[in-house]
Amino acid sequence: MIAVPILVICAAFATVSATTFRDNGGLEINPHFLVGSRENKDQLRALFMLLDAEGNSPEKNFAVIREISNNLFREGEYGRLINFLGNRTVRFPDDHYNAHHLLMIAYAYMRQGSLPIAARYFDLIVKNYPDLTVNGQSIHLTCLLQLIELNNDPTQQVWLYRELISRFPTEVDLGVIWFRLARAYEQVGRWDESIRAYANFMALGSPPVPGYPAAANHARRKVNFHNSSRDWTFESLAALTAAVRNSFDTNNTARMAAIQSRTNFFTRSWGQGDVDSRHDFLISRYFTPHTRIRHADRFHERSSGTEVYLRTWGWPQVISVWYFYFRQVDFPADPSVHGRWEWAGIYFGESF
């Protein structure tokens, strides 16, 4: 996202201003801007006659400009709107209301499908023009929200979310913004800042985040894992699998308990979805020296390169078949652990 240089914009509009404005600076009622029905043309002609009239205050001129702009926008005359407002910003570079004029230009480009150009205008307004409140709405806030939708660059998104948090904390859903900032931090490799952002999201009650139905669980797992010792992980899947199978074969309950992940461990039925992890699950309650647990020689067919399911049976419960779930650790914040393997949970019953 690169701000459009002001001089470049001015030069572009200066090429059309000569056909739009008289030498004395007054606006010529150019038929080019009189569009729509006869009634609409008459309304526009009357508005242009009011514009820059002698004795007009800046506020009155702004009101006239808004009426002209809204009229052209309603008529779908986006090119004419861009021409009109672009010329205004060139002729009156110190106009207090230029942020609004450029915002209308950005919206016109959006309606034309020129989203990258619209994004540059939103960026230009935020970084080069003082904020302006129109109809109770901050123009900078409007631009920041638009930029978030138009710009997928995580580095820029970090800046945008931080701007929203620091400048408009009471006008946005702060919990949602903290979560999205944490995700953006992850994408640029700023791991510690990501964890702090997730913690702030959790401190606000982990509110629902549109597009992320498991946001609360995702944040909790990240923070919990970051704050844990992470000493239960194994260098490879082969080492983890061998340790689990050996525990079964020797009925070593203590070894089995040591292998179990001590944070974010879950137990669930197939199809239950992403639910809160079980912090109170102790395998020793179910796996005793007198329990004869059997295990498959191969992983289940739904296994992948980062997630593995090991079928076990013989558990003294109503559901006697349990699938042990092993996964590769995804935690780039700690290179010594990232890519290792952990026993992360149990699925009850036969796989479907």
Write the layout of secondary structure elements.
Blueprint: H1 6-17, H2 38-50, H3 58-74, H4 78-91, H5 98-111, H6 115-128, E1 133-134, E2 137-138, H7 139-150, H8 154-167, H9 174-187, H10 191-203, H11 215-226, H12 237-250, H13 253-259, E3 266-269, E4 294-295, E5 307-313, E6 321-328, E7 341-348
Parallel strand pairs: 3-7
Antiparallel strand pairs: 1-2, 4-5, 5-6, 6-7
Describe the overall structure:
With 352 residues, the chain is of the alpha+beta class. The protein is 48% helix and 9% strand. It folds into three domains: 144 residues, Alpha Horseshoe (Serine Threonine Protein Phosphatase 5, Tetratricopeptide repeat); 69 residues; 112 residues, Nuclear Transport Factor 2, Chain: A (Roll), CATH 3.10.450. The strands form two sheets. Strands 3-7-6-5-4 form a five-stranded mixed sheet, with helices on one face. The chain has a two-stranded antiparallel ribbon with strand order 1-2. The longest helix is centred in the first third of the chain and has 17 residues. It starts with 5 loop residues before the first helix and ends with a strand.
Quick synopsis:
The chain is built from 13 helices and seven strands. It has 352 residues and is an alpha+beta fold.
